[in-house]
Amino acid sequence: MSLVIGLTGGIGSGKTTVANLFAAKHIDIIDADIVAREVVEPGSTGLQAIVEKLGSDILLTDGSLNRSKLREAIFSDSQLKEWLNQLLHPMIREKMQQDIAAAQSPYCLLVVPLMVENNLQAMTDRLLVVDVDEAIQVARTQQRDNVPTAQVRRILASQASREQRLAAADDIICNNGNGDNLEQQVTKLHLEYLALSRQQNNTPQC
């Protein structure tokens, strides 16, 4: 089984950019956001349960989930949000575990935005945190999503603090600088993770 490296970071930290740099080195990426979409695809038990709870109005004309309508529904109903979390979180976790078991690269990357908040680092061998100054997070998120500063700060306040993530980290990538610097940090960690995976695979099993 591959060594599992957890990858997390706050909004606007550059997790996707970092994950793509590892993917370019032929490392398998398991992305929680993608898995979350997969467990509610048409024909899935997840989508069937949501339709049974909320009716077929929650679907788009092509039979897929109307995500914006679902977001609106849970925004004003905390009980419904809790029901949805209890339905989907175990499915997402199970699918991530299946994808980890199927990984073919020497190590794999498990990308979870709310890794520390949901204590999912238990699924990993090491935790890699993409760290960035808060001012840069706010500016990047505003530019990317075209949203006001106050909205970005509300999202930041709902996530783990920078200090909490850094305290949980085994490895840290600083993403305040340019792309060349980021590439160098990823390459250095890639070589370290390859060495760790070789070490793990050479350890005798009892």
Describe the structure.
Its main location: cytoplasm. Keywords: ATP-binding, Coenzyme A biosynthesis, Cytoplasm, Kinase, Nucleotide-binding, Transferase. Pathway: Cofactor biosynthesis; coenzyme A biosynthesis; CoA from (R)-pantothenate: step 5/5. Its EC number is 2.7.1.24. It contains nine helices and five strands. The protein is an alpha/beta fold and 206 residues long. It is globular. The protein has a five-stranded parallel β-sheet, with helices on both faces.
Overall geometric form: globular
Helix content: 40-55%
Which strand order spans the largest sheet, edge to edge or round the barrel?
2-3-1-4-5
Order of helices and strands: EHEHHHHEEHHHEH
**Ends distance:** 16 Å
Going by CATH, what is the homologous superfamily of the largest domain? P-loop containing nucleotide triphosphate hydrolases
What is the number of strand segments?
A: 5
Helix count equals: 9
Largest sheet: 5 strands, parallel
Kindly provide the radius of gyration, computed on alpha-carbon positions and rounded to a whole number of angstroms.
19 Å
Mean pLDDT: 92
Secondary structure category: alpha/beta
Identify the CATH architecture of the largest domain: 3-Layer(aba) Sandwich
> Which fold name is given in CATH as the topology of the largest domain?
Rossmann fold
Low-confidence segments: none
Q: Return the domain count.
A: 2
Main location: cytoplasm
Pathway: Cofactor biosynthesis; coenzyme A biosynthesis; CoA from (R)-pantothenate: step 5/5
Subcellular location: Cytoplasm
Function: Catalyzes the phosphorylation of the 3'-hydroxyl group of dephosphocoenzyme A to form coenzyme A.
